[in-house]
C-alpha cells in the first residue's frame, strides 16, 4: 500500500511539473540582466549591464528600455521597485552607487556613493519602501553593510567593529541580488561563497554544506519561507551542468541541512519560494521547480536565466538573464 501511494505521489508530481513551463517574453538586447523586481502581476522592473533598465506595466507584454545617463558602461546588478514610478538600482563596482527614480526612469538621482578602494556591492533587500539594506564584499576582512530608514535618501554604514568577519577567499556573488533576504520584519540574513560559504544570521556564522573551496564555487542565492524553512542554491559557475552539492535546505533555521533526492540540474544563481511547498530556481542551463519543499526538482526549461522573482503583491513569477532574456512562469 505504501509503495502504491509513493508511486501515485510521484505521478502527481511529474504531472504538475509538466504543466509548469517558462515562456520567453523578450530577448535580443545587448544587456545581461541580473536585477529583477516584480511589484505586482503587471509591474516589472529589470536592470543590467551597459547602464540598462527596463520597465513593463502590462505583465511583460511590452517594455520601456532606458539607459541611465552618465552610467552607460555601468552594471546594475540589483534593482528594488515599489511601484510603476519608483525604483532603486545598484551599481556594483568601485565607485559604488545607488540611484533612485520617482518618475518611471525619466530621471535618476544618486542616493549613495562610495569611492573606497575595493568597494563592490552585491545585493539589496527592502522590508518596505522606508527600510532597506545593502551588502558588499569584504573590505579589510569584513563584509560591507549599510542601512536606510528613509526610503533610500540616506544610508548609514555599519561600523567596522560590528561588521561580520570574512574567511580568507570568502566573498559574495553579485549574481541575482538574492544573497541577502529579510528573515522577519526587522532582521536580514545573507550568504557568502568562494573558498568558504557561510550563512550569517543574527550574530551567528553557519557553514553551508554546498560545494566550496575555489573562487567560482559556493552559495549564490537564499530564499526564505519562514524563520525555520530556507533554501540555498549555488554550485560552480564554471561548470554549469554540475549538480554536486548545488542545493541545500533547512527546516530548523540552519541547525541542520538536507540535500534534495533529485537536485536542480546544474549551477543555480537564484532561488525563490513562490508559495506553499513550491520553489523555483534558475541558472545558466535552465530552470528547475520543486513542489515538495526541495526533496525533488524537475527541469522545466533549458533557457538560461540569472534571476527569478515572484510578485510582491500577486502570483506572477518572472525571469531575467543574458542577451536581454525575460521569461514568465506559466502554470
Primary descriptors:
331 residues; 4-stranded antiparallel beta sheet; mainly beta; 1 helix; Methylamine Dehydrogenase, Chain H; 5% helix
Report what the structure shows.
This protein has 331 residues and is mainly β. 5% of the residues lie in helices and 44% in strands. It has one domain: 7 Propeller (Methylamine Dehydrogenase, Chain H), CATH 2.130.10. The protein contains one helix and 29 strands. The chain has a four-stranded antiparallel beta sheet. The protein has a four-stranded antiparallel beta sheet with strand order 2-3-4-5, with no helix packed on it.
Secondary structure elements and their pairing?
Layout: H1 2-19, E1 21-26, E2 33-38, E3 44-48, E4 52-56, E5 64-67, E6 76-81, E7 87-91, E8 96-101, E9 109-114, E10 121-126, E11 132-139, E12 142-148, E13 156-157, E14 170-171, E15 180-182, E16 188-191, E17 193-194, E18 198-201, E19 204-207, E20 217-224, E21 230-236, E22 247-250, E23 270-275, E24 278-283, E25 286-290, E26 298-301, E27 307-310, E28 317-320, E29 326-330
Antiparallel strand pairs: 1-29, 2-3, 3-4, 4-5, 6-7, 7-8, 8-9, 10-11, 11-12, 12-13, 14-17, 15-16, 16-18, 18-19, 20-21, 21-22, 23-24, 24-25, 25-26, 27-28, 28-29
Amino acid at each position: 500500500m505504501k509503495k502504491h501511494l509513493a508511486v501515485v505521489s510521484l505521478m502527481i508530481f511529474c504531472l504538475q511539473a509538466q504543466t509548469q513551463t517558462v515562456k520567453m517574453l523578450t530577448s535580443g538586447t545587448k544587456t545581461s540582466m541580473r536585477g529583477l523586481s516584480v511589484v505586482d502581476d503587471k509591474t516589472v522592473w529589470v536592470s543590467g549591464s551597459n547602464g540598462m533598465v527596463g520597465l513593463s506595466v502590462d505583465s511583460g507584454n511590452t517594455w520601456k528600455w532606458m539607459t541611465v545617463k552618465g552610467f552607460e558602461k555601468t552594471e546594475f546588478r540589483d534593482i528594488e521597485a515599489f511601484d510603476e514610478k519608483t525604483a532603486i538600482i545598484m551599481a556594483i563596482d568601485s565607485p559604488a552607487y545607488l540611484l533612485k527614480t520617482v518618475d518611471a526612469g525619466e530621471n535618476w538621482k544618486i542616493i549613495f556613493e562610495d569611492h573606497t578602494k575595493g568597494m563592490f556591492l552585491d545585493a539589496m533587500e527592502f522590508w518596505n519602501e522606508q527600510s532597506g539594506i545593502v551588502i558588499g564584499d569584504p573590505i579589510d576582512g569584513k563584509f560591507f553593510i549599510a542601512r536606510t530608514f528613509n526610503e533610500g535618501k540616506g544610508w548609514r554604514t555599519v561600523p567596522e567593529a560590528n561588521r561580520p568577519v570574512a574567511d580568507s577567499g570568502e566573498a559574495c556573488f553579485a549574481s541575482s541580488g538574492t544573497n541577502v533576504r529579510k528573515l522577519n520584519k526587522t532582521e536580514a540574513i545573507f550568504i557568502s561563497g568562494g573558498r568558504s560559504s557561510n550563512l550569517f544570521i543574527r550574530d551567528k556564522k553557519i557553514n553551508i554544506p554546498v560545494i566550496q573551496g575555489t573562487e567560482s564555487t559556493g552559495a549564490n542565492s537564499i530564499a526564505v519561507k519562514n524563520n525555520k524553512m530556507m533554501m540555498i542554491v549555488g554550485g560552480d559557475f564554471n561548470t554549469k551542468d554540475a549538480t554536486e552539492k548545488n542545493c541545500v535546505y533547512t527546516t530548523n533555521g540552519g541547525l541542520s541541512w538536507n540535500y534534495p533526492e533529485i537536485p536542480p540540474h546544474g549551477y543555480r544563481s537564484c532561488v525563490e519560494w513562490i508559495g506553499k511547498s513550491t520553489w523555483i530556481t534558475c541558472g545558466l542551463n535552465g530552470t528547475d521547480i520543486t513542489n515538495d519543499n526541495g526533496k525533488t526538482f524537475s527541469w522545466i526549461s533549458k533557457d538560461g536565466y540569472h534571476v527569478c522573482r515572484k510578485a510582491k503583491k500577486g502570483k506572477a513569477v518572472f525571469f531575467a538573464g543574458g542577451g536581454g532574456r525575460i521569461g514568465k512562469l506559466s502554470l
